[in-house]
């Protein structure tokens, strides 16, 4: 874990979401899906750093997908190509797959889909097609490795907010998009689509999930009901991001025991979904 | 080196020898405090630095004057549930609620690492009851920690903590009881700013037998989400820290210093070396840096490096010369 100096290489804006590609002169440490960078917001107005999971990584650059929600992200949205930004990484444990995980379900909601997009590459070596934020296009999977099958269940509020579906389709055998208002894909939540698939006989070996509290809670319920292994990355307000200040804790029943307050930053942010008190 | 060369080559430099060596010499950062030698006046504040391990990944934390540990209680504590942090203008609120491994596990699991560091260790002692404080202090007094910091000012726990820190009578009573079991460990009493008179509480700590006082702990505050009409913090209220509280902290250090003879550790929103100097001018012999660590894990390292440069710029040869030098 160390601080890196990044230069904004490119920026793409889609309404209240923007993508930043950050390049670094130093070689970057390897990072897996779910790990994050703790970004220093430029200027003096916002003092606490902001944590962002990566959605793309290579040795020279990282890409972040950021939703504008408050002062910090508003300030970051003002960054331009060529600007400098500092970030501490790699932080956290990330999503991992076991050899027994052949049928994999990715369940994401809103901006929470971004870190999931890195899973097929970081866990299975599946290369992504060009990732276009807005394009809603289903492209064929390039490679199927070791008999694995990935199904991605992605939920958004409305069609205009649907992102990364092309990217997911290039690395998943099946992509199911849901919107709350039914303007694109299936009307409803991604967990509805997952439940329907389970009832139709697709029982995932593992469910990996990232999204808001309601989504993670719904996924937890499915995991417990069907006895499916599951991992989640949730949303906690964060302080130092290095494990010292204890403000980002989640109640986790490690090994099914009594709930302990674990640090989302360094003990997580990915936890066994059955053990998290939601 | 350049001074020596000049000395040989330039007669004028010889004449000015004393002056130039003063201007070029590294200022002395060492401070003697309660019989302990601090290599510089900067201590990592309790609750922002864990037990030092995390920051040691970023720099050698032995360069610090000292480390005040995460607030310890006799028994392990899981802390408060729900959201524990809210960002505010120039600051932050927290309500961690003294999550810590308890005295026994601290001694077994954390103290060996702290012992391996070349810096002064202050064990921050908190509790629910006077008995708890006394039991933990006497347990820690038998260990290798250098000093005890009595935390009677945590605003985030329902019982104990601040309950002992508001009323001067209860301050004096608990300090007396803890001092009696502290053995040879100097006892620093950490005061709350959320009181009627900081002078009275500083005096009460002194009368109870404190060897020093540290102030200020966080100011009680709250944050509300206007959309949901709910408090942002799980504990509803929390402790405000960061640059927002620096003026309050300076004023209270200044007032406390005029009330007591024992030395003071000043803190509250220190972000830079000039902040350190301001606190020392107001009356602090040492300072603690807290929230700055949360904003930037390299903060204290930067402040220490910056302090040397700033002292040189101000022609100050010994940092201790700054203490209580506020001019009229």
General description of the model:
The complex is a heterodimer of chains A (about 280) and B (about 325). Chain A has about 280 residues and is α/β, with parallel strands linked by helices. Chain A has three domains: about 1-90, Beta Barrel (Elongation Factor Tu (Ef-tu), domain 3); about 105-235, Nucleotide-binding domain of ferredoxin-NADP reductase (FNR) module (Rossmann fold, 3-Layer(aba) Sandwich); about 235-280, Dihydroorotate dehydrogenase B (pyrk subunit), domain 3. Chain A has helices at about 70-75, 115, 120-125, 165-170, 190-200, 215-225, and strands spanning about 1-15, 15-25, 35-40, 50-55, 55, 60-65, 85-90, 105-110, 150-155, 175-180, 185, 205-210, 230-235, 250, 260-265, 270. In chain A, the strands form three sheets. In chain A, strands 4-3-7-1-2-6-5 form a seven-stranded antiparallel sheet. The model of chain A has no long low-confidence stretch (mean pLDDT about 90). Chain B has twelve helices and 16 strands. The model of chain B is unreliable at about 1-20 (pLDDT under 50). The interface of A and B includes residues 1, 48, 237 and 239 of A.
């Amino acid at each position: 874990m160390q601080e890196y100096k990044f230069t904004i290489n490119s920026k793409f804006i889609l309404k209240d979401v923007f993508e930043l590609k950050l390049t670094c002169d130093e070689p970057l440490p390897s990072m897996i899906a779910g790990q994050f960078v703790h970004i220093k917001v430029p200027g003096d107005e916002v003092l606490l750093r902001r944590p962002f999971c990566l959605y793309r990584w290579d040795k020279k650059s990282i890409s972040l997908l950021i939703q504008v929600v408050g002062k910090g992200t508003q300030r970051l949205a003002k960054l331009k190509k060529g600007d400098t930004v500092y970030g501490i990484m790699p932080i956290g444990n990330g999503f991992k797959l076991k050899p027994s995980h052949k049928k994999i379900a990715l369940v994401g909601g809103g901006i929470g889909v971004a870190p999931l997009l890195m899973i097929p590459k970081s866990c299975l070596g599946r290369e992504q097609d060009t990732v276009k934020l807005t394009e809603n296009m289903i492209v064929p999977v390039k490679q199927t490795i070791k008999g694995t099958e990935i199904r991605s269940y992605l939920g958004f509020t409305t069609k205009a907010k649907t992102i990364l579906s092309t990217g997911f389709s290039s690395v998943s055998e099946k992509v199911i998009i849901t919107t709350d208002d039914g303007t694109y894909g299936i009307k409803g939540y991604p967990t509805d689509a997952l439940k329907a698939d389970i009832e139709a006989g697709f029982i995932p070996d593992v469910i990996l999930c990232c999204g808001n509290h309601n989504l993670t809670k719904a996924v937890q319920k499915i995991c417990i009901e069907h006895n499916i292994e599951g991992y989640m990355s949730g949303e906690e307000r964060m302080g130092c991001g290095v494990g010292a200040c204890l403000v980002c804790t989640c109640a986790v029943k490690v090994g099914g025991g009594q709930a302990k307050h674990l640090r989302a930053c360094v003990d997580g942010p990915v936890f066994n979904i059955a053990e998290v008190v939601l | 080196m350049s001074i020596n060369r000049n000395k040989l080559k330039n007669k004028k430099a010889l004449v000015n020898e004393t002056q130039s060596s003063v201007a070029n010499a590294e200022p002395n950062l060492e401070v003697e405090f309660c019989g302990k030698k601090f290599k510089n006046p900067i201590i990592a504040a309790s609750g922002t630095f864990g037990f030092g391990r995390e920051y040691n990944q970023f720099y050698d934390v032995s360069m610090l004057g000292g480390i005040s540990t995460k607030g310890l209680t006799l028994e392990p504590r899981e802390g408060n549930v729900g959201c524990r942090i809210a960002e505010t203008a120039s600051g932050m609120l927290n309500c961690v609620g003294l999550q810590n491994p308890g005295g026994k596990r601290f001694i077994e699991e954390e103290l060996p690492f702290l012992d391996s560091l070349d810096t002064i260790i202050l064990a921050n002692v908190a509790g629910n009851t006077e008995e708890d404080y006394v039991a933990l202090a006497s347990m820690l007094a038998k260990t290798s920690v250098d000093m005890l910091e009595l935390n009677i000012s945590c605003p985030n726990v329902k019982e104990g903590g601040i309950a002992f820190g508001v009323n001067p009578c209860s301050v004096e009573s608990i300090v007396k009881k803890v001092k009696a079991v502290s053995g040879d460990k100097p006892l620093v009493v950490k005061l709350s700013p959320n009181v009627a008179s900081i002078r009275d509480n500083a005096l009460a700590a002194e009368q109870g037998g404190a060897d020093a006082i540290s102030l200020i702990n966080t100011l009680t505050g709250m944050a509300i989400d206007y959309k949901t009409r709910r408090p942002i913090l799980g504990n509803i209220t929390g402790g405000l820290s960061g640059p927002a509280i620096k003026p309050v902290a300076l004023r209270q250090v200044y007032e406390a210093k005029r009330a007591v003879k024992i030395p003071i550790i000043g803190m509250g929103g220190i972000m830079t070396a000039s902040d350190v100097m301001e606190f020392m001018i107001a009356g602090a012999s040492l300072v603690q840096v807290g929230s700055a660590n949360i904003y930037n894990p390299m903060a204290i390292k930067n402040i220490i490096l910056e302090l040397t440069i700033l002292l040189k710029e101000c022609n100050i040869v010994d940092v201790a010369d700054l203490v209580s030098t506020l001019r009229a």
